[in-house]
Known about the structure:
The protein is of the alpha+beta class. The protein has helices at residues 13-21, 47-60, 81-85, 154-176, 183-190, 194-206, and strands spanning 26-30, 63-67, 89-96, 99-107, 116-122, 136-140, 181-182, 210-215, 218-223. The chain has three domains: 1-87, no CATH class; 92-152, no CATH class; 175-223, Winged helix-like DNA-binding domain superfamily/Winged helix DNA-binding domain (Arc Repressor Mutant, subunit A, Orthogonal Bundle), CATH 1.10.10. The strands form three sheets. The chain has a four-stranded antiparallel beta sheet with strand order 3-4-5-6, with no helix packed on it. The chain has a three-stranded antiparallel beta sheet with strand order 7-9-8. A hairpin with an 8-residue loop joins strand 4 (99-107) and strand 5 (116-122).
Amino acid sequence: MCFPDWYLNSKDAEDRLLRVCEGRALVVFDSLRAGTPGSKENDSEQRQYLDLITRVSEKTGATTLVLAHDDKGGHAMRGSSAQNDALGSAVQALKKDKAIQLLQVKASVGAGGSPRTLRFVDEGGLIEGYEMSERLVIKNESGPPGAGELVSRWNEAAEGLRANEAAARVALDALAKSESLTQSALLGQMNCRRQVGVEVLRGLLAEGRIADEMRGRSRYYKLVPPAPANDSKGEDEDVPF
């Protein structure tokens, strides 16, 4: 969300964040300071906002990634040390020889990962049926040459897009045959992972193709009929020669 009407230090932040994170695999906060306007980043109370994010993550299953700036020396996260105490894992990104070096500086559970050096290469490209002006390849330059290379797999991406389209068609067909359906009933027919199905329904809502409403504790969806075409021309309408 760009320029939200609420922040992590709003009174109802936890309830709002729960709704945002529902059904999502990854939620990125850019950045902690921007998400807590008016707060003092050097105050130990700043930890409470990270604790809030952690609670929501545990309730929804969403992985949360919080971006924060380094201190002037580039040695630690800027602000109170209490913030670092609240983190489950911390990774520092450093510029090195026109590449990005990732260092895991904290790991609360298990062993920390070894350093990784990544380089972004714009090669251009297309996904079948979709116009893509860029193809971003991320190469892991750590370790032996060619080992652990992280390259965009366009066939897999295309398959994922087609799967989402198929799930959307199933949802629309199901709603066309019924006045309304619960979210659980729709997801059961879409034959995909729950988080994928929820994302597909959100996309259809954003496009205005379906509508939703809460009835008690259940969310219901219904099909939005297409607007009738208006082929009539007004008397004052300009007609091209």
